[in-house]
């Protein structure tokens, strides 16, 4: 069960991951490409936008993110 900082958003995703590398993230994204995937930030928001009953990624072990913009599409790798 995951709760936000304010305790007003509580949810239990089917799949919970804490990947340690880019390749693990890509593998998870590939496995669940037809699902709903959310990622964890600080969980301080009061909105339920973070809630997922499908796939939830805690990225606490990922130390950097690279953004690539090509042809009007933004990719985060």
Description:
This protein is 13% helix and 30% strand. The chain has 77 residues and is of the alpha/beta class. A hairpin with a 2-residue loop joins strand 6 and strand 7.
Radius of gyration: 13 Å
Proportion of residues in helical segments: 10-25%
How far apart are the first and last residues' alpha carbons, in Å?
A: 27 Å
Q: In oligomeric terms, what are we looking at?
A: single chain
Biggest sheet, in brief? 3 strands, parallel
Uncertain stretches: none
Share of residues in strands: 25-35%
Helices and strands, in order, run as: EEEHEEEE
The count of β-strands is 7
The side-by-side strand order for the widest beta sheet comes to 3-5-4
Mean pLDDT rating: 87
Find the structural class using helix and strand composition: alpha/beta
User: What is the count of helical runs?
Assistant: 1
Q: What would you call the shape? A: globular
Briefly say what this structure is:
With 77 residues, the protein is an alpha/beta fold.
Summarize the helices and strands and which ones pair or pack.
Blueprint: E1 2-3, E2 10-11, E3 15-17, H1 22-31, E4 37-40, E5 55-58, E6 67-70, E7 73-76
């Amino acid at each position: 069960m995951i709760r936000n900082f304010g305790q007003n958003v509580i949810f239990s995703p089917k799949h919970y991951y804490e990947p340690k590398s880019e390749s693990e993230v890509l593998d998870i994204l590939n496995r669940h490409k037809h699902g709903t995937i959310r990622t964890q930030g600080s969980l301080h928001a009061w909105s339920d936008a973070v809630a997922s009953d499908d796939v939830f990624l805690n990225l606490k072990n990922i130390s950097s993110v690279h953004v690539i913009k090509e042809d009007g599409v933004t990719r985060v790798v």
